[in-house]
Please model this.
Amino acid sequence: MFLLIRETAGWLLVLASLYLVRMGIGYVSNPDEARVVEAAVVMFAAMGLLRAGILLVRISTAARICHREQQQ
Model:
């Protein structure tokens, strides 16, 4: 059960980071009001969330594989 919670949390973090990436691209895509500093801060936070989310998904996948090996 804990594996499912960990994997779900990881995917939610990945989705949140994708939303932040979209927001950061929106900051710099407007040529009249390009907010580069704000976009850089948002992208930095998005990369941190993406890294944490992928880490949780990787750990959950490895734990699931080990659990299946122990059952056999």
Observations:
- Residues 29 and 35 are 9 Å apart (CA to CA).
- The mean pLDDT is 93.
- The chain has one domain: 2-71.
- Residues 2-71 form one domain.
